[in-house]
Backbone:
């Protein structure tokens, strides 16, 4: 379940690609399974992974929470999911059998309406799980917050302290699976057992949004079962505050020290040759012992070859994942006898290459070559490593890959009338050049592609960051959504599908005609998009509901004969007992209001399609997340 | 006595100011106030039928300005959310705007002062490349619209999506017909009184210098990137992509004679002398209410924040004419010019991402005629053996009829894929006889050494008005494509090419001295950033150190690096570099001066040059500067020698 994290991984890169965009260069690579070190998955076919249970907890294959019914969740047949079935104010917590110090944890959680749970790192530090659907300004007690600490002895009203609300409300509706990712560092103690460093939530992500960064905890949060702090502790899942379900719990513990470099020297050569030259025949400009690897050691912007040689001090035997990125610089990396990278200088800084190799504990010699014949303005390179129990860290200095300073951001805010802004927008890694982004006064925003006639994304909260469009030349021209966005299929929404086996096209096919006709603004400034496809006139409107994340779409077609509407696609689409469809493995819901839709398998995924009636009609449906 | 002193003082001040902007006595530049919160990066200008000024901005807004002629205009937001609309027009009670990806009609149907209909008239594909700018619309006499599409930029111009580099005709119903290609950066174009279409081009790859070309259906104007679409079924351009060799080895005029689809320019604007990024064109149809240049053409420049003037004529169906300087000193980079209802000229400007001599990031000004007529060369017409000049006031008989008061030289630009072109084939001509009319208003120059297909610089430096004044602009550049009667009768001169100035190699040391046996002591590298900047504004070296300095131009404009002495030297060198005239290009815009220590040449985009030199012995704050015209005021840094 890593699709959403690719989005998160892209977010910091989108800004970088704005600075270094060059359409000739391969920049952000196609989303593809890339090398990664495996997580340890908690087996949820029974309770062997837990110290406690089952009690109020049950093993299930899934869970159903009617988002209209308070505190109600029904476990479904099967295994792989744990569900807390106890009503609020009763029930036991669940503790993992393993204990952890530094850890990278990923899991999915489903809440019921008004429900409350929590994920306690080391059993002591809580990331709040709560039904915060529709909350405007989240508190520490909302979904994704770091819960406050509590002092019974303090005067009333001052007992709660040091709670951290999430950066924004990224909580989804009850009944949907939500993705949580935590990078946590345990407190450090000296030889006498005195704490010398607080526990830190380095990063907390909810549904692809980073909601916390570097939050230090002075002590256990409220209702933690441990009053003390220690180097390790179990994960605790709170079970006494209402129905909740968890699945896909996996982690990497980081108990080992980082990889270090020793006996490091760097030799520098001057060269403009396109390929990495054989430096044995060249005159060396300098050879120096150094204590770090950095782009800035070259002392010049281009025309150089840096050859680093030394030893890597490997803390533990196992698989090591190396990541490199370099701005128009070739990279060759040899560890022991293996060449891990032999990469040309054609890439910009946001294209990362990864390689995995097995290393034994101890020292191993390495050679790292950086070759930059030209393009002096594009600078920087980096090399990172992750290993067994070894958290990912850089082997180059922080300054080595640093790009220029960020410009002052230019934001577009939502107003009391709908705001529209045309822009380029990334959809699944590709630029959609005829995008109209719309901010509604209800705080739900969406982006519609007028070149293809399809909805691209929906999000809530802040509207748009237009810096990439309006700073200097605006090379990226990308409108950046602010906040948690849901991505839709992006294919033309209407198509005269001939039969079950015809795949749905992702653009206009040969023989079709499509004519965008613009939009007209109505009440509150909401746009009605107009277009003609294959002789049918289409009007598309969107309305948002205040207080919950619901986008209502209505399409009015004058000649529906033969047309189908594509509602959604994804790895899994399921119809819930209340009739709504959970799309793309429970990323969002579609409520067709009772209309009959067709589910089909096509091109390796599931699609939800609706056949149009002949003649004129208006189709309306809701998207909820 | 005191009154006399005040008078003297004021006239001295006046002279001083006039020297800085000699046209200011005749044409005033007046600010149109802009509210602080409005980012008026002008993309398009159009008056509606209530004499309100519509302004489309690069941030996608359309403002309606009431009382734009006053000092307290009222701004109303008419529309927003468009995608960088770089042109605006008003017709049939609605606006038309060209966005990056479509031509849009804006209407206010419910009459509340805000657009509520955004109708897509015609939409074209985009590649996602930021350089795919789209301009227009302007109207043909029959009510159809014209739109031009800029090339994409990938280190050089390319046509990454359909019709980039083309002139398109679009009917109000949205039917599109492609008309011509070969365009590179067609930010300005116009339809003249006869319904003929002209567009301006910017110096760049395949374009030796700024110029204006008459476009007819089926024409190819020079840059081959757009030929990618010439084989489309509805393309009238009968040239195939790849049929233009990278180095044809001749001028565009000669190439156009060889290949029928190729259209040579009507008017060239010598680079850095008459601008660096030609933009909008405005024909003076004010009936004489904007001064003496009725019927002539004004052409704006984005990079140099100035306006040039063109006298255009048509000889046997071929358009050609003379370009003169007109007025400098606008507040930002000029993109759009239109007439106000009071016969003043609205000038809309922006310099975001494309730095201009006018430092403001955006601006809106009016150019107002004072009613006083400047003493200028009014018209310049080609003759089979010379030129016929007319003046705005009578010239003195002594100066006007003296051949020594005039100088002529002709030159050309290469037509090739390289960015820009040096001045080539320059040859001085000879004015051997001048016939001045009795009223002193016209001078018939008889010239040896005129050449068809060349640009002729005519300098009337010695000419004085009857009252003894000098011309405000004494130089005109005439693009000679044809002569009346079809036959050139100007005798050739003896192939006397003006010598190329040799760059003093001592100040441009590109190889490491052999005496540096241990190599350089200091290695520096310097690059560029968009917006006329070096990427380092401070370099530090020890006095006397052996320095190796590599300058890399990673911008998409031309730059150089000139290291000068401390103090005011940088300003003096900047001033000198603007006065190099036609020789500037071959001198890499580096003047001859003791104030200059070392310099590189002009670097093409994505190239670099290395200098090896000893840092000065004397510690101090030495400056380095790019002396490419228009850059020297901002593109600077300090080399600290200690």
Residues:
């Amino acid at each position: 379940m890593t699709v959403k994290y690719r989005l998160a991984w892209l977010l910091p890169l989108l800004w970088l690609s704005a600075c270094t965009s060059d359409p000739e260069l391969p920049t952000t690579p196609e989303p593809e399974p890339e090398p990664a070190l495996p997580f340890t998955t908690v087996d949820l076919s029974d309770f062997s992974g837990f110290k406690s249970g089952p009690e109020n907890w049950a093993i299930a294959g899934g869970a159903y929470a009617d988002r209209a019914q308070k505190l109600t969740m029904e476990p479904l047949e099967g295994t792989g999911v744990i569900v807390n079935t106890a009503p609020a104010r009763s029930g036991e917590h669940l503790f993992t059998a393993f204990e952890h110090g530094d850890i990278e944890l990923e899991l999915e959680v489903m809440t019921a309406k008004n429900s409350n749970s929590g994920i306690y790192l080391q059993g002591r530090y809580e990331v709040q799980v709560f039904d915060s659907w529709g909350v405007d300004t989240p508190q520490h007690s909302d979904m994704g917050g770091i819960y406050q600490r509590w002092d019974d002895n303090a005067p009333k009203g001052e007992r709660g302290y040091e709670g951290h609300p999430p950066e924004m409300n990224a909580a989804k509706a009850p009944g949907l699976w939500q993705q949580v990712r935590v990078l946590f560092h345990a407190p450090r103690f000296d030889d006498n057992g005195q704490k010398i460093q607080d526990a830190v939530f380095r990063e907390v992500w909810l549904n692809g949004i980073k909601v916390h960064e570097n939050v230090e905890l002075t002590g256990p949060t409220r209702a933690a079962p441990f009053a003390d702090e220690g180097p390790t502790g179990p994960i605790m899942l709170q079970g006494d505050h209402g129905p909740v379900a968890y699945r896909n719990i996996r982690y990497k513990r980081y108990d080992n020290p980082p990889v270090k470099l020793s006996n490091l020297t760097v030799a520098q050569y001057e060269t403009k040759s396109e390929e990495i030259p054989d430096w044995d025949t060249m005159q060396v400009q300098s050879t120096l012992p150094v204590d770090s690897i950095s782009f800035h050691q070259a002392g010049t912007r281009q025309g150089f070859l840096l050859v680093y040689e030394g030893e890597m001090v490997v803390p533990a035997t196992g698989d090591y994942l190396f990541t490199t990125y370099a701005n128009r610089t070739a990279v060759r990396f040899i560890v022991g006898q293996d060449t891990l990278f032999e990469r040309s200088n054609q890439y910009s800084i946001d294209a990362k290459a990864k390689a995995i190799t097995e290393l034994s504990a101890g020292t191993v010699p390495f050679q790292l070559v950086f070759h930059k014949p030209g393009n002096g303005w594009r600078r920087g390179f980096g090399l990172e490593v992750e290993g067994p129990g070894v958290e990912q860290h850089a082997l180059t200095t922080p300054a080595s890959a640093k790009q220029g300073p960020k410009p002052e951001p230019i934001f577009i805010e939502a107003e009391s009338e709908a705001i529209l802004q045309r822009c380029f927008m990334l959809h699944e890694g590709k630029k959609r050049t005829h995008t109209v982004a719309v901010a509604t006064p209800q705080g739900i925003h969406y982006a519609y592609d007028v070149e293809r006639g399809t909805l691209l994304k929906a999000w809530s909260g802040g509207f748009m960051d237009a810096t990439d469009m309006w700073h200097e030349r605006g090379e990226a021209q990308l409108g950046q959504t602010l906040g948690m966005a849901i991505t839709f299929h992006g294919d033309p929404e209407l198509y005269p599908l001939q039969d079950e086996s015809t795949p749905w096209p992702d653009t206009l096919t040969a023989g079709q005609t499509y004519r965008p006709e613009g939009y007209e603004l109505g009440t509150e400034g909401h746009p009605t998009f107009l277009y003609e496809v294959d002789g049918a006139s289409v009007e598309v409107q969107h309305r948002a509901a205040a207080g919950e994340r619901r986008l209502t779409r209505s399409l009015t077609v004058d000649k529906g004969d033969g047309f189908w509407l594509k509602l959604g696609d994804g790895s899994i689409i399921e119809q819930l007992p209340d009739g709504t469809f959970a799309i793309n493995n429970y990323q969002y819901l579609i409520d067709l209001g009772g209309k009959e839709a067709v589910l089909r398998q096509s091109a390796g995924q599931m699609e939800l399609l609706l056949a149009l009636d002949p003649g004129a009609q208006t189709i309306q449906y809701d998207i909820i997340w | 006595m005191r009154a006399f002193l005040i008078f003297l003082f004021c006239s001295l001040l006046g002279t001083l100011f006039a020297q800085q902007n000699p046209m200011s006595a005749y044409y005033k530049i007046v600010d149109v106030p802009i509210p602080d919160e409005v980012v008026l990066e002008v993309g398009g200008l159009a008056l509606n039928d209530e004499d309100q000024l519509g302004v489309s901005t690069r941030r996608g807004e359309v403002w309606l300005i009431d009382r734009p002629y006053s000092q307290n205009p009222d701004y109303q937001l008419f529309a927003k959310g468009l995608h960088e609309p770089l042109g605006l027009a008003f017709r049939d009670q609605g606006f038309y705007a060209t966005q990056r990806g479509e031509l849009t009609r804006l209407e206010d149907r419910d009459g509340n002062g805000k657009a509520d209909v955004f109708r897509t008239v015609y939409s074209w594909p985009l590649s996602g490349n930021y350089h795919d700018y789209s301009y227009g619309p302007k109207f043909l006499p029959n009510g159809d619209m014209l739109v031009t599409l800029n090339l994409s930029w990938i280190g050089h111009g390319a046509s990454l999506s359909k019709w980039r580099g083309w002139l398109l005709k679009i009917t109000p119903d949205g039917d599109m017909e492609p008309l011509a290609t070969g365009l590179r950066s067609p930010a300005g174009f116009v339809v003249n009184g006869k319904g003929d279409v002209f567009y301006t081009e910017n110096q760049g790859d395949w374009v030796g210098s700024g110029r204006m070309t008459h476009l007819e259906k089926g024409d190819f104007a020079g840059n081959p990137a757009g030929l990618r679409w010439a084989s489309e079924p509805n393309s009238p351009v009968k040239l195939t992509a790849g049929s233009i060799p990278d180095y044809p080895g001749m001028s565009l005029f000669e190439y156009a004679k060889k290949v029928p689809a190729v259209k040579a320019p009507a008017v060239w604007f010598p680079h850095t002398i008459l601008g660096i990024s030609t933009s909008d064109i405005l024909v003076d149809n004010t009936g004489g209410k904007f001064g003496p240049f009725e019927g002539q053409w004004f052409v704006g420049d984005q990079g140099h924040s100035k306006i040039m003037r063109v006298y255009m004529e048509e000889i046997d169906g071929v358009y050609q004419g003379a370009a003169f300087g007109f007025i400098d000193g606008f507040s930002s980079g000029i993109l759009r010019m239109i007439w106000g209802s009071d016969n003043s000229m609205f000038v809309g400007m922006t310099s975001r991402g494309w730095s201009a001599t006018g430092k403001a990031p955006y601006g809106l000004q009016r150019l107002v005629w004072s009613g006083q007529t400047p003493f200028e060369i009014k018209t310049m017409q080609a003759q089979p053996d010379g030129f016929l000049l007319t003046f705005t006031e009578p010239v003195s008989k002594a100066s006007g009829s003296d051949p020594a008061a005039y100088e002529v030289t002709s030159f050309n630009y290469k037509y090739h894929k390289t960015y820009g072109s040096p001045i080539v084939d320059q040859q001085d001509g000879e004015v051997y006889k001048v016939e001045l009319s009795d009223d002193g208003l016209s001078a018939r120059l008889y010239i040896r050494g005129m050449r068809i297909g060349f640009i002729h610089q005519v300098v009337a430096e010695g000419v004085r008005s009857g009252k003894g004044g000098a011309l405000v602009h004494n130089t005109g550049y005439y693009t000679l494509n044809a002569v009346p009667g079809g036959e050139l009768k100007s005798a050739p001169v003896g192939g006397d090419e003006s010598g190329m100035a040799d760059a003093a190699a001592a100040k441009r040391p590109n190889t490491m001295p052999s005496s540096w046996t241990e190599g350089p002591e200091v290695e520096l590298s310097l690059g560029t950033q968009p917006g006329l900047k070096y990427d380092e504004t401070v370099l530090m070296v020890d006095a006397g150190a052996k320095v190796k300095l590599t300058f890399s131009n990673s911008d998409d404009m031309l730059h150089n690096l000139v290291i000068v002495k401390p103090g005011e030297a940088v300003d003096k060198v900047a001033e000198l570099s603007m006065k190099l005239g036609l020789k500037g290009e071959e001198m890499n815009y580096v003047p001859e001066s003791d104030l200059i220590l070392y310099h590189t040449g002009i670097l093409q985009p994505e190239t670099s040059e290395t200098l090896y030199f000893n840092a000065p012995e004397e510690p101090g704050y030495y400056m380095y500067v790019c002396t490419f015209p228009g850059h020297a005021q901002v593109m600077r840094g300090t080399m600290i020698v200690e």
Summary: The helical segments of chain A are 3-19, 467-470. The longest strand of chain A covers residues 74-84. Chain A is about 5% helix and 45% strand. The two ends of chain A are 18 Å apart (CA to CA).
